[in-house]
Structures are given as structure tokens and as C-alpha cells.
Amino acid sequence: MMMGGRRDGPLMRSNEKGRRSRIAAAIAIGVVFGCVFALLYPHGLFVSIPLHSIASKSYLQFNLSSCESSERISMLKSEYVAAYKKNAELKKQIQELTGKLWLAEQGKDNAQKQVLVLGEQQKTGPFGTVKSSRTNPTVVPDVSANPRLAKILEKVAVNRELIVALANSNVKNMLEVWFSSIKRVGIPNYLVVALDEEIANFCRHNNVPVYERDPDNGIDLVGRTGGNHAVSGLKFQILREFLQLGYSVLLSDVDIVYLQNPFEHFHRDSDVESMTDGHNNRTAYGYDDVFDEPSMGWARYAHTMRIWVYNSGFFYIRPTIPSIELLDRVSDRLSRGKAWDQAVFNEELFFPSHPGYDGLHASRRTLDFYLFMNSKVLFKKVRKDAHLSKFKPVIIHINYHPDKLSRMKAVVEYYVNGKQDALKSFPDGSDW
Q1: How far is CA 414 from CA 47, 120, 421, 426, in A?
Q2: Residue 25 to residues 28, 32, 34, 214, 250: CA-CA distances in angstroms?
């Protein structure tokens, strides 16, 4: 046992010495390599390149590139400036065209809508105080529309308004009663549009302001030979020139007796103020009419709004865009086929916009049916009422009866000459 211990001792010491020498050698080699790396890479093996260095190099490269292609850059800049200016011009044109298109779609040449668009915006007031405007602005007078008529109207019109009537020789006797009543009241601003030479001479002989239109084959033929309804249809076309010249017109048929000056009774707050064919408050000003359909059961009753038509033989019309559009619409429809002018006049005034149709945006007022009286009201009601028979209307229109001349003379006898029984002999209705 002791012999074995002695043999192992020297061997172990020898191995330990070899291991130490190897470690020392590795350390020495590491130190040598470290020195070599330190000399070769004094800032270390992994060094981050500063960003400003990269930017500087890129900037230098860009500058070199810019210097090399300065002419190309100058050309591109010039093209860019030109394109920018052109784009600005096109953008401005697009804005202008868009604005015009919007206005056209909104109003279709409706000037008063442009006024509303450009007008000052307003705040709403307290409850119950808000009132919308129903008075459209008048058009700018266009003397070029009819210079000769413009000179006549300068002499005849008062406050740029007047009574206008169309007449041919067929209504000569009624026309005399008509202008005699106007003269009696003292109304200075009235004018007869003569549709034939006989009426023109008749007016001149009686010192009545008259206007003869320039020759027009279509209008002249109807004007000379047409009856009441045919002549009535012409007035919408002829009336347009008066409105273009900036004058308000009281369009009057000749089967009317004037007892007061009508211009003292207009409100002038609407495009059209018209007398009505209605005979009481409900028919003249509108009412709720209930339609009964029993087969509908619980929903058998349908409410409808009703109003009797305006009379196209007596209405006051202001020179506004909606008024002129009304005349154009009625004239166009009458020219395309046979139709009653009064029916067309009312349809264009009252029909609302609906699919396939743009309604007319014209304001309207119904005149007091006792002041502006139709012959139905007079002969069925007023002449039989002790109180109403003492009331003096502004005008009486013999529109419900065919024996116009005799009834017009009777009206003059009753209201002007005081003959109390002048109206008694006539029936309520019409004797054909």
C-alpha cells in the first residue's frame, strides 16, 4: 500500500505542471492577439457610423448630382411652375362653372332665387314673430323689348302700373261701357290694345289711350276674327311685353263695370292678385272638403282642400320672374292645342311640383269677392240682400252670364244712376 502511494505522487505533480504551462501559453497568446487587435483597431472592432456622417455623404452626393444635372432641374422647375398656374386657372373655372350649374339647377333662370342665395342670412325671432317674404323682386326694365310701347307707357302709366284691355270690333259696344265707367271714376292709367283698325279708330275718336301692335300674322288673325275665348288667350302673350318693360298690369276683360279705383285696393305683396269665381268665403278662399268612400271602412273619409278658380279676365300682375314664367307657361300650352285659358291659368298657378312636373313658385292673393264682384254674387245674393245691396263694389264682372251688355248697362243704372229696380228683371242664372 505504501509503495503504491509513493509511485502516484510524482506523476500527479508532473501533470499539474503541464496544465499550468498550457494555461500560461494560452494567456500569452491571448495577450499577443489583444495587442495586435489593439494596434489594428484602436476604436474597436464594432463601431457605429454617425448619422450626420451618412447625411453629409448623401448631401455631398446629391450636391454632386445636382451640379451634374442643373439644366435638367431648371427645366423641370419651369414645367412645374407652368403646370401649377394652369391647374390654378382650371380650378377657378371649375368653381365658377359649378356655381353656375348649381344656380341653374336651383332656379332655372329664376333670378329671385339668386337674390335669396346671395342675400343676408337672418336669425329666427321669437315664436310667432317669424314672417316669410312673399314679395318677389321686380325685373330690371328692358326697353329694348318694345321701345314704341315703352314711350306710350311713360305717358299713360301712374306709379308704373295701369289697366290693360284687349279688344276687337266684336266687343265694341261693351268696350264703350267699359271705358266710360273708367272715365267716370277718374282713373287715368288705362290702355286699350286694339286688335283691329276699327277699334283703334274708335278709341282715338273717344280720346281713349290706345296701342296698336306691330304686324303679326298669327296674332292679327285671331285678334281680328276671334271670339271672347280666342282673344282672351292672346292676352298672356301680349302682356309679357308690359312686364318686360317693368310695369305692373291690371289685366281686364271688357265685360267689367268700374265703380271705384281698383289701384287703391291692391296689396302688392304677391306676384298675382286675382278676383275669384267663388261666391262665398268657403268657395272664394278655400275649404276642407271631405270625400266619403264607404268601401274603405275605418278610412272611408278623406280630407281634400278645395278652392274655386281665379278669374283670368281680371287680375293684377307684378313684373317679376315668376309672373313672366306664368305668362310663358300659359302661352306655350295654349299654342300647342285647344284649351280654355282660365283652366290653364289656374293649373299653372296652383299645381304643386310632383314627379315629372316642376310647379310654378309664384305668390298669389285672392281679392275680396265683395269688392271685386262677379255676376253670380251680384244676381244671386247681393241684389236680394237689403244690407249688401247698399254696398258699393270696386268692380262688377259680368262673367257668369252671356247677356253681358244689357247687364252691364243695368249695373250702371243701379249703382251710378240710382235706379233701384234696374237689376230686378234679370234671372239668377243664364237664359240661353
Answers
A1: 124, 54, 7, 13
A2: 5, 11, 14, 133, 130
CB crowding 58-90: b at 16 or more within 10 Å, else e: eeeeeeeeeeeeeeeeeeeeeeeeeeeeeeeee
Please, are residues 369 and 275 in contact by the beta-carbon 8 Å criterion?
A: yes
**Coil, strand, or helix at residue 163?**
strand
Residue closest to 255 by CA, chosen among 430, 402, 431, 398: 398
Q: How far is CA 359 from the centre of its chain?
A: 10
Please give the Cα distance from 232 to 418 (Å, whole number): 32
Cell numbers for 13: 505533480
Model pLDDT for residues 6-39, shown as the tens digit of each residue = 444 544 445 555 566 666 666 767 665 665 555 5
pTM of the model: 0.71
Tracing cell 288705362 back to the chain, one arrives at 190
Report pLDDT digits (tens) over 352-408: 999 999 999 999 999 999 999 999 999 999 999 999 999 999 999 999 999 999 999
| Residues 6 or more apart whose Cβ sits within 8 Å of residue 212 | 194, 197, 200
